Every structure is written in structure tokens, then in C-alpha cells.
């Protein structure tokens, strides 16, 4: 009887390991190599002055921070989702080669407390970030910047 129970347990354990490996392989095969980061910051403000969004597939993660001197504004992080169609529409606006040719800083971001925006595209080992003045744009990537602004407006703060 003990041998029978032991055999059943070993069989269940081996079967469970195989299921986990198959699921992990399937998840890795469908993961998208593109990650889009975007956000805004204002140096001379009170409260949550920095908003950082990470869009990876259909998951959007928002992290909100206060300024360096504000201990009363602890970091907040929350998530929402996009539809697959919305993610595909964002990806269609990405031209990594054109974007990578842009300078890392355009204009004078957050000068005279005007605020700053950024967009960062990462695909595999390629990563490029462009920071620019709030409500301005990145030449050649205007449609992407506008679409990301709409996403940020739809998810403005963590609860």
C-alpha cells in the first residue's frame, strides 16, 4: 500500500513539473520584445510630480513619485490593461530606427517649470530615450507621442 501511494505521489509530481515547463515555454513564445516607457515630470510642484508608465504588451504599469524633498508623497504603483488591438495600434506607430536617430534631449525640458515628457523604446538589447519639453513632440514620432498622451490621460493616477 505504501508503495502504491509513493508511486502515485511521484507520478503526480512529475506530471506537475511537465505542465509548468510547457506553460512557461508558451508564455515566453508569446511575450513581445517591445517595451514602451513614457512619462511626465515637473520639478517645482507639490504632490505627485512624476508619472512613469511602462507599457509591455497589454499591461500598463504606472508609478507615481513626489519630488525628492517630499516624504509625504510615498511612491505609488498600480496597473491596468490594454486590449490586444490597442497594443497592436501602439506598436504600429513605432519606428525604432527613426526614433533611435533622435537626440536624447530635445529643447529645454522642465525649464522655467514648464515640465518634461519622455518616451523610451526598448526592443531586445536596443534602448533609446528621448526627453523633451512638456506638450511638445518628437519630430517624426508625433503620432506615437499623441497616442501615448491619450493613454496617460486615460490612466492619470493610482487610486
Offer a few descriptive terms.
Mago nashi protein; alpha+beta; 159 residues; seven-stranded mixed beta sheet; disordered N terminus; globular; 7 strands; 2 domains
Question: Can you walk me through this structure?
Answer:
Helices cover 35% and strands 31% of the residues. A seven-stranded mixed sheet has the order 4-3-2-1-6-7-5. It folds into two domains: 30 residues; 123 residues, Mago nashi protein. It has 159 residues and is of the alpha+beta class. It is globular.
Provide a brief overview of the structure.
With 159 residues, the chain is of the alpha+beta class. Helix content is 35%, strand content 31%. The chain folds into two domains: 1-30; 32-154, Mago nashi protein, CATH 3.30.1560.
Shape assignment: globular
Sheet with the most strands, sense and barrel status: 7 strands, mixed
Overall structural class, as computed from helix and strand content, comes to: alpha+beta
Task: Work out the radius of gyration.
Answer: 22 Å
Helix content: 25-40%
Which strand order do you get reading across the main beta sheet?
A: 4-3-2-1-6-7-5
Helix count from the secondary structure assignment: 4
Q: What is the C-level CATH assignment of the largest domain?
A: Alpha Beta
Q: What count of domains describes the coordinates? A: 2
Give the overall average pLDDT.
Answer: 83
The name of the CATH topology of the largest domain is Mago nashi protein
Q: How many β strands by DSSP? A: 7
Strand content: 25-35%
Topology as H/E string? HEEEEHHEEEH
What is the CATH architecture assignment of the largest domain? 2-Layer Sandwich
End-to-end Cα distance: 56 Å
Query: Which consecutive residue ranges, at least 5 long each, have pLDDT under 50?
Result: 1-30
Amino acid at each position: 500500500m505504501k508503495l502504491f501511494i509513493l508511486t502515485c505521489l511521484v507520478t503526480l509530481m512529475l506530471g506537475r513539473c511537465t505542465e509548468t515547463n510547457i506553460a512557461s515555454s508558451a508564455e515566453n513564445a508569446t511575450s513581445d520584445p517591445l517595451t514602451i516607457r513614457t512619462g511626465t515630470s515637473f520639478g517645482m510642484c507639490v504632490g505627485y510630480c512624476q508619472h512613469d508608465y511602462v507599457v509591455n504588451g497589454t499591461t500598463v504599469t504606472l508609478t507615481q513619485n513626489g519630488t525628492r524633498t517630499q516624504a509625504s508623497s510615498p511612491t505609488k504603483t498600480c496597473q491596468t490593461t490594454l486590449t490586444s488591438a490597442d497594443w497592436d495600434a501602439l506598436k504600429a506607430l513605432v519606428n525604432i530606427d527613426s526614433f533611435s536617430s533622435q537626440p536624447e534631449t530635445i529643447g529645454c525640458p522642465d525649464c522655467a517649470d514648464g515640465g518634461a515628457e519622455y518616451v523610451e523604446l526598448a526592443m531586445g538589447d536596443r534602448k533609446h530615450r528621448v526627453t523633451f519639453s512638456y506638450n511638445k513632440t518628437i519630430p517624426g514620432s508625433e503620432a506615437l507621442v499623441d497616442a501615448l498622451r491619450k493613454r496617460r490621460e486615460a490612466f492619470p493616477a493610482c487610486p
